[in-house]
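Notes from hallway chat w/ T.B., transcribed later so I don't forget. T.B. wanted the structure written out for a chain they're using in a teaching module, and asked if we could keep both sequence and structure tokens in one place. Agreed to drop them here.
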Amino acid sequence: MAAAINIFIDSNIWNFLFDQQIDLSVALPSDKFRLYIPREVELEAGAIVRPEKAELKAFIAATIAKCDIQTDRLFGFHDDSLPPDEQRVGGLDEGRWVSPEEAAFIERYKLKIAKKRPTTPLYPKEADILLAARASHSVVLSLDDKRGPIRDAYQQGDMVVFLTDFDKSGLSLGDFILKSLSPAQIAKAQRLASKWVPKK
């Protein structure tokens, strides 16, 4: 049996799944796909507080629990400028070492210290940069194909799958993801699946 591949989920995918009422545990079974979110995407989901988004927030929480979606934190030291619930990185036995490819991608963007957006504890593009960096070793699912870090990762040959054409494909979600990747990318994702995973 082929090895499972790691999938990292962008924040905008939650809305897509909710609107279409897609059950990820069925669409992406755990024997073929292992699902993760970067810490930064977890923070974005946690920032959903508007009453009209309550059903979406409940859907996200239920999906994370049902599919055992793990949060991926990179190793780093406590940032005294941030409150405990906004820390990005994890310490020993919490965060994993960043790969050289991830480090190089993140360094290209050099996160600028800017004003945080009022609806999230993150800086502009912060989640996109940290998510796109994972595409060097895992598959990143997104709907954000406009100019930016995720599009850059896709254009440099990293494993990004945009779901913008999923509706008209007629394929299952799992088949659409696999068809969107080259055989070499699938082999790479399977080979690296056990190497770059969050610490539990």
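Follow-up for T.B.: The radius of gyration is 16 Å. Might be a good example for the class.
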